[in-house]
Amino acid sequence: MALIGAEAVLTDQPLLFPSLGPTAFLLFTRPTHATASPRNTLLGHLIGVLAGVLGLVAFGQWHSGPSITHMTFAGAGASTLALALTCGAMTLFGLPHPPAGATTLIISLGVLHTPPQLVLIMCSVLVLTVFGGVINRLTGTRYPLWRAQDG
Question: What residues does the HPP transmembrane region domain cover (predicted)?
């Protein structure tokens, strides 16, 4: 997190956002669990990003400002649809990663939603996942390279 935070300060880009906290928690406290695997982490957040965008577009909120302090029915609809799509897609594809629900809300509420910001979200998730894997392996934890072993 410190590396991502430092990079955010140096580049003045939104690289540090709330759903990285629970992702880091899973990577370091449940590293062998499927929800913390690189596969679920990366693809779960990607599903969250795409669902957030779909929610914004479906409710005509793509060009609106953030809807955190002044919620509208369209903003609530965008977030509801996006979260339902995220939960449904992660379940359908067997990619549970609960922090991706927060990523969906960050996007569907319009906090981060421009194409460059969406790329930065995924870059931050990738950096955290890679460093989580490196740190887990250096400490002797059998962190999967892609997918957690069943059982």
Answer: 8-144
Contact of 99 with 22, CB cutoff 8 Å: yes
Q: Virtual CA dihedral for 114, 146, 33, 119, nearest 10 degrees?
A: -10
Which among 56, 57, 51 has a CA at the least distance from the CA of 102? 51
Q: How many helices (H) and strands (E) does the chain have?
A: 6, 0
User: Which of 12, 2, 16, 11 has the alpha carbon at shortest distance from 125?
Assistant: 16
Q: What is the pLDDT along the chain (151 residues), one digit of tens a residue?
A: 888 999 899 989 888 999 999 999 999 999 999 999 999 999 999 999 999 999 999 999 999 989 888 899 999 999 999 999 999 999 999 999 999 999 999 999 999 999 999 999 999 999 999 999 999 999 999 899 999 986 4
DSSP 35: G
Q: Where do the domains of the chain lie? A: 21-64+71-138
d(CA 13, CA 117): 8
